């Protein structure tokens, strides 16, 4: 199901690019925007450039973010590259402002869906997530800073009017992503399990968060249990739940929203 949503999200992003942004020379955010820029000034295909630019960052994502996110990101990058290649670049409207608005909003919907279901659209998303986990600076703020460079390149390569339209598109994309994917929300997860050591080892390998473990016992069965507590972003909840369920289908998981985190949020 998650893979299907990631593919659908990729199709939505490709639709926004080829029917609204690309025909007017408006860039997108991230490496996709760089791929569009290269495609506009060189004979290289945009879909192929998007795939090639993402390969080194996919390797980095596998090392830093774990298998699940990287697998879904690979699905997204490949499907997005295919859709960009297959879909014709035809303008839905000749109005560049309308194309900027709808391209930004529709593209943001696609990326938001991808992020919500434990994937990324590749490229700068991977870098932003890694930096966010180690610095606690929001993903949105990091992406805004990195995407500002793309706007400057667009202004230098084309003209500043296109750069401003690009900035508007990136802003709308970011707002739509934030409305769908609430990565900034921190959640506390309490996991009660009889297989605490196995879960601890797998979480430490796959999730960039610290874990506190206490011992307890069932109030009814008096069976010995481990209680694992960790604070994660909403982005990581599905990944943690999958790890726990793969090891212990009977585990009890309690999830509640965290108002504030004071102290080290990332795993040392």
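^ Assign residues to that structure.
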């Amino acid at each position: 199901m998650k893979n299907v949503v990631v593919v659908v999200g990729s199709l939505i992003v490709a639709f926004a690019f080829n029917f609204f942004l690309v025909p007017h020379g408006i860039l997108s955010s991230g490496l996709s925007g760089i791929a569009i820029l290269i495609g506009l000034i060189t004979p290289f295909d945009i879909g192929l450039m998007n795939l090639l630019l993402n390969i080194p960052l996919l390797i980095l994502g596998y090392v830093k973010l774990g298998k699940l996110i990287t697998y879904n990101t690979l699905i997204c990058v490949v499907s997005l590259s295919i859709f960009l290649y297959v879909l014709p670049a035809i303008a839905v409207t000749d109005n560049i402002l309308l194309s900027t608005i709808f391209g930004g909003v529709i593209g943001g919907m696609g990326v938001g869906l991808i992020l919500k279901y434990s994937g990324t659209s590749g490229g700068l998303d991977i870098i932003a997530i890694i930096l966010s986990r180690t610095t606690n600076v929001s993903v949105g703020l990091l992406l805004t800073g990195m995407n500002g460079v793309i706007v400057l390149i667009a202004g230098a390569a084309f003209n500043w009017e296109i750069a401003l339209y690009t900035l508007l598109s990136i802003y709308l994309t970011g707002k739509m992503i934030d409305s769908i994917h609430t990565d900034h929300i921190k959640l506390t997860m309490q996991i009660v399990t009889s297989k605490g050591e196995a879960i601890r080892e797998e979480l430490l390998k796959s999730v960039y968060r610290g874990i506190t473990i206490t011992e307890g016992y069932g109030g009814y069965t008096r069976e010995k249990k481990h209680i694992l507590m960790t604070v994660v972003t909403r982005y990581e909840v599905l990944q943690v739940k999958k790890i726990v369920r793969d090891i212990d289908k009977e585990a009890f998981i309690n999830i509640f929203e965290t108002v504030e985190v004071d102290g080290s949020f990332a795993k040392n």
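The chain has two domains: 2-180, 186-257.
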